Amino acid sequence: MRPSDSHEVSQLNELKIDVGALIVGGYYALSGQCVMVEQMPIFGGYSGGLEETAIVDVATTLNTFVMMQGTWHLDGPVHVRWGITTAREALAVAGHAGRAVEENTHILSGNQYYTLAGPCTVMCLLETAAQSITDTASGREVLSGVASAKGVLTDMFTAMEARFMGEVAHGVAGMDLHQVNIMLDKLVSLYEGKYKTAPEGKPFDECYDPVTLIPTEEYVGVYNEAIKIMTDLGLNYWK
To answer: Across residues 69-94, what is the average pLDDT?
Structure first.
């Protein structure tokens, strides 16, 4: 591995740590590794509601550096009911925690992406866009995604979701925060009523030609549809 490659160790929910993680974290710290410490606070779980979970999120971020001597922190507030990071409440936690850390520290932080919908669906891309907007506007340096279809099904993710994540981040960077919030509110309202009927999407070999690694015409069409929606909402990256 290269010296810049991250070695992961995870905290537990909420504000817990196990002996195994302490041992691994100690080894990483003593051997001078680049250490990424991960933690995913649960909205609606032990922490409680939005405000309490945001406080826990900030605390776990700080704990990465105090207890684990981490190089950077990988966040990922998740909704207890849906198991995703793109729900409105999870985005609010991530946004407030990220902004608080950015405004008051020099900490390097990222966020994980778990959408409800699967690849080759407009909903998946819109969920991805919502979180990318939140992370970029709140000052996170690393976008870690996308684990589509909640990250629990085999081969249900592609580079198209990651590309959309990056393009949206470039598009929203530098935008007025008030305008960002208006756009984000409209965007989340487009998919949050579809959680119980979210499309599963298609596996990688149905989204790409597995030999040429070129996305299918169907997925390109879905991608362009998502671009149009985002453009209509005020994101001008693709114009």
So the answer is: 96
